[in-house]
Structures are given as structure tokens and as C-alpha cells.
Design brief:
With about 325 residues, the protein is α+β, with helices and mostly antiparallel strands. It contains 5 helices and 14 strands.
Amino acid sequence: MMVVAAGNAGSLCSTVTDPPSFYAASYTAGALNTGTDTIASFSSRGPVTADGSGRIKPDITAPGTNTRSASNTSDTAYTIASGTSMATPHIAGAMALLWSAIPSLQNQIDASRTALDNAAHFISSTQCGAAGPPNNVFGWGRVDALAAVQQLALTEAVSRKTQGTAGTFDVPLPVTGEPGVECRSTGGKFTFVFTFSSNVVSGTAAVTTGRGRVQGSPTFSGNTMTVKLSGVTDVQKITVTLSGVTSDTSQVLPDTPVGANMLIGDTNGDKTVNNPDVTQTRGQVGMPVTASNCREDVNIDGAITSADVSLVRSDLGHSLQ
Ligand SMILES: [Ca+2]
Ligand SMILES: [Ca+2]
């Protein structure tokens, strides 16, 4: 997570001009007059013109005037300072709190930014464009760490299969970044289990890209939502989008897509069925099926046999690259 000061070149618009403040990958902090929901006059504003993008900046704001801070004059010195450099550590600290409270968000940069953005106290402004959220003065608003850790968030997704008598095993489906690969053959039927930061009681799911459909209604238990899929074809990426998922305290998750690469036989998950998958599967023949080698029981009968090796071989060349 790279949290960057917006800069102190306000109050005019398009004053977020110094790299890396204006990059999309930077989480950019503006400064409030401490104790208020008004922007500090010096806090740099968007839209970004430095790279011609018109990107909205800053992303979020925090207190940034008359802030007590460590000073480099000695190992024990403090000073009082104003600047977006004073606001920025509030955001880095809020992110650390969020990751401490919801460990599944650690290193999930997009999801973590979304969590802080959605929880921020929105402050409207039309000084430098549309009111938002977000807008070019306050971004998504004033950071609210407590709201961020209390909000409903999707923390984990898996594809779950019962494999003969060996047990029930999960293939992870990362909720951000590159989608996971489900390599087990299940006649087009899959069960996706979604885990949230709070208990959930209702919501819907739909296949929004790719071939397949949701079967029946999702079921809810504790902090999990279980979605059954059928008619899911091989060699494709599907997207299941969750809508209206609601917690037991009536918080509603924004519509959330989760992707999955469906590629039977790609036991090593590199999006191509190739010889390393054959070798990997052969290497597990006769071994008990566990969480660590459940992918090699490609036909999910609870044993890793020559039938699994043959199944992988029959799919050689299938690829999602
Ligand atoms: Ca492979
Ligand atoms: Ca098997």
C-alpha cells in the first residue's frame, strides 16, 4: 500500500502535480483543517492534468493542520506542523488498523482502498468538478477508521468440492487480482463459498460473464454465503457477481464481482494444461487426498489414480492464456 501526500500547492484546482501523488496506483491523501470537515487551503486538488488523465485526486482526506509530529532535530524532538504530509500518516495508520482488524485484507490493495473509500465520511465539493463521491477536493471524504473495520466486506471466496470419502476441500478464488483456477472436473456443477467480515443474512448471486448459471437461492450461515452453480463449461473465465448481500446489522455490500478460471486438469494453476500438470498429478498417485493435493484428484473420487493422470492428459493444450 503506497499512501502519498497530495501536495501543498492548493487552493487552485489541478495542483496535484508531483509524482507519485497523481498516479492511479498511489493512495493520495489531502489535508483537512484539523477538527473540521473543511479543506486546508494548501491541500492540492485534482483533476490531474500532469499526465493528461483527468484523474480524480486526492483519494481521501485526514486532519493535516497544527499536527504534533516527530521532528528530525533530535531523537526526542517534536514539532507542530501543517501539510498533506501530516494528513498522510493518518491514512497509512488507518490502513494498518484495517489490516489488523481484518487480516484477509492484508496486501489486497484494491479491496483495502475500497474499504477505506466506502467507509469515509463524504464531504461534498464542486470547486474542481462534480460533487462526487469522489471529488477533486476531498476524494471520498474524511477517513473513518472505525466505520472501515465495522463495514461489511467480502474477505474470501473458494470453490468447494466433496471428494469421495477423502473429505471436502477448497480451491481459493482470490477476491482481487488474478482469479484463481478451479481444475477439478465436476460435470459443470460447482459450489462457491463466500466469507464476509460480518454475519450475512440475505443477498443474490448471478453469473455475469461466462457460461453457467446460479442454481436455486444462495444459502447463508454465519459469515458465509454459499452459491451453487450448474452448466459451467470448461476452458473459460466466469464471473459471479454478488448483489445486495446484507449483514445482520443491515449493512449492504456494494455489488461485488468475483472471477474464476475454469480449466479442468490445470493442477498447477498456470492457466494452461501442460506436461507439468501431468507430472504433478502422476507424482501424487496413491497418496491420500489432502488439502495440499486435492487439485490432483481431478475427477474428485477421493483417490489420486491413473484415471486422474489420464484426465489431465486428455485436456493437454487447453489454455486460458
Ligand atoms: Ca498447468
Ligand atoms: Ca481421482
